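dude i think i finally got it to work??
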Amino acid sequence: MNIQAEKLELMEMLLKTENEAVLKKIRSIFASSKGSPRITIEQYNKEIEAAENRIKGGKFVRHEDVLRESEKW
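look at this
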């Protein structure tokens, strides 16, 4: 199948769908192909939760410590 025919077939499918999950996935594919680091709100929330858990577990470096180490370079 040539690329123009493929595009037309995909456009037809896109226009007919009522499935929001499909539309979100397509948007995500386009966003990632542009090189933009867009993430969903769910991904964002998971990253925040993971960071909070690392902090609670003591797995972090304080800003002051980073500055002190950088002075050694």
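The mean pLDDT is 87.
im so relieved honestly
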